[in-house]
Amino acid sequence: MKQYNLNDLKNEKLPAYYKPEIRELAFQNGITFPSENELIMLLLGKGTKFLHIEDLSLEVLKVINFSDEKNLLGNLMTIKGIGKSRALSIAAALELGRRKTCHLQKKIEKPADIVPFVKQYALESVEHFITVTLNGANEILKIRLVSTGTSNKALIHPREVFSQAVQEKASGIICCHNHPYGPCIPSKADIESTEVLKKAAEILGISFMDHIIFNLETYYSFLEHKIIFGEE
C-alpha cells in the first residue's frame, strides 16, 4: 500500500478512504492537528452503510453548528446512522469541552463568581483541591485539580499549588476545595494550610486572593470572613 505523509494530508492529496488515518496523524502531531471535521471522524470511528465516515462527519458538523444544547441530541438522531449512543457520545464530548473552557478570561470580581466554575467537584465523595490562576485583570487563566484526598482532607503542598502558576506568570491565585460531608466551615487544618500557602505566595510575588470551601448548597470564603485576610 502506498504510504502518505503529513504534507500529503495538508495538500489534500489523499484519497477519501485514507482520511480515517487521521488517528495516526493525531497521535504523531497532537490533538490540535485535526480539523473540526476530522475531530468528529475520530469520535465516530467509522461510517455507516448510508454514508462514508467523511460525509457522515460533515453532516454531524452541520447539525452541531445549527443546534443548541436543548435540541442537539434530537437533531443528531435525524442523521441516518446516528443513534442514541453516538448522539450521546458527540453531545458529551461537546459538553466536556464547554465545561473545560467556559471559564477562560472570565473576570472574577467577588468570591461568589468563582463557585460556578468549580461546583462540579461538589459531587465528589472525597476532597478535591483546586487552584484558579488569574492575570492582572482578574481574568481566569486556568483551573486545575491539584490533589484529591480522603473524605475530610485534601493533601496539598505549596510546590504543587504554585508550580504551574509560576510557569504561566499568573498575577493571582484562588484556592478552592469541596467539603463532601458537613457544612462549609474551615477546619483548623484548613486555616493552617491556608496560612502556609499565603506566605508562599508572598515569597513568589503572586497575590493569594482567597480560599473557598464549597458544597452543593453553598460556599465559604476566607476573604469574606476575614480569616487570614483580616489585615487586608
How would you characterize the overall build of this protein?
A five-stranded mixed β-sheet has the order 2-1-3-4-5. It is built from nine helices and five strands. Strand 4 and strand 5 form a beta hairpin. It is an alpha+beta fold and 232 residues long. It is elongated. The protein is 38% helix and 15% strand. Helix 3 (36-44) packs across helix 4 and helix 8 (158-167) packs parallel to helix 9.
Structure keywords:
single chain; 232 residues; alpha+beta; 9 helices; disordered N terminus
Secondary-structure blueprint of this entry?
Blueprint lengths: L5 H5 L11 H8 L6 H9 L8 H13 L6 H5 L7 H18 L13 H4 L9 E7 L5 E9 L9 H10 L4 E7 L9 H17 L2 E8 L4 E3 L11
Parallel strand pairs: 3-4
Antiparallel strand pairs: 1-2, 1-3, 4-5
Helix pairs in contact: 3-4, 8-9
How much beta, percentage-wise?
A: 5-15%
The quaternary state of the protein chains shown equals single chain
Which class of secondary structure composition applies to the elements? alpha+beta
Radius of gyration: 23 Å
Q: So what's the overall shape?
A: elongated
Helical coverage, percent range: 25-40%
The largest sheet, given as strand count, sense and whether it forms a barrel, is: 5 strands, mixed
Strand arrangement, major sheet = 2-1-3-4-5
The average pLDDT value, as a whole number, equals 85
User: What is the number of strand segments?
Assistant: 5
Low-pLDDT segments: 1-18
Q: In angstroms, what separates the terminal alpha carbons?
A: 70 Å
**What is the number of helices?**
9
Reading the helices and strands in chain order gives HHHHHHHEEHEHEE
